[in-house]
Amino acid sequence: MKKLLFLTLLIISFLFFVRELIIPAWIIVSPPDAKSIAVTIPEGSTLATTAVLLEQSHLIKSSFWYRVYGRINKNATKIKAGEYGLKEGSNFSSFARILARGPVREELNITIPEGWTIFDIQNRLEELGVDIAPSDFYAERFADEFPFLKDLPAKATLEGFLFPDTYRVWADDLPDGLFRKQLGEFSIRTVELRADLNRDHRDLYDVLTLASIVEKEAKHDEDRPKIASVFQNRLDAGMRLQSDATLNYVTRSGKERLNAKDLENTSLYNSYQYVGVPPTPISNPGLASFESAVHSAKTNYFFFLTDSNGKAYFGRNLEEHSANRYRVFGQ
Q1: What's the pLDDT score for residue 19?
Q2: CA dihedral 148, 151, 152, 156 (to 10 degrees)
Q3: For the chain, which domains are there?
Q4: pTM over 0.70
């Protein structure tokens, strides 16, 4: 009788052990349509605190049995902090494996076209759900890593230095991960051109600003060196650049041709009123525009305009410019 009672208790204990530990630890499998529960594992989490968190999230029934499981499988104690999406109905082994491996990082392909401004980049990142502030673009944040950012004006942004290309970036490393890749690409791709500027004792920021204007004004690569020459000739002669693109940078109107009211704007970016380049770059130029600004064509052109197809027409003086205007616009 005692043996029968003992055997009965042994079987009941075994079945209880199977139900409470064996099945939830190794046997159960979450269905394909199982709901994903967001769980944040804080830094320094232990097996005990993680077990409680899983129970509170209704992912396991008992934190006690998860701790028991952790005694058997030390993998359950190798917990990495982070954000997780854990499937309802998964077994202890699955949770332990995922938490030991760490959060799965999402990678994104982000394309930054030539001529985009920091405002365009900000809009793109916000579309991706990135919380970004204007101060994130301050150049001083990256000056220790990229020496060409040193000695810029106070509160200068990364405008002009964020090299246009397609980048693969960790989603949880935005925006700085993207900025560092762009700055790194700028560093590599412009090394020879920057050496040329140093040899000629020319200021990188001024030339980059000129390149950013060329980027906005030129539609075809073959026109860039000559457009750069127009602006450089004007700068050398002490003339105003008279570029619609510089004022559009602050008004963000996107107008191809400004009217008389627009030109009354007193912003320092109004190159119809002020001599010299504007205070900062007005876009992030591609390599062709930067090269054109560093090595502009040698011409006698002081004027240019473009037609609806982006073809540029150049003039040496007002007479030729007026003739081009009549040819293109009929006026």
Answers
A1: 86
A2: 100
A3: 2-101 (3.30.1490.480), 107-189 (no CATH), 205-329 (no CATH)
A4: yes
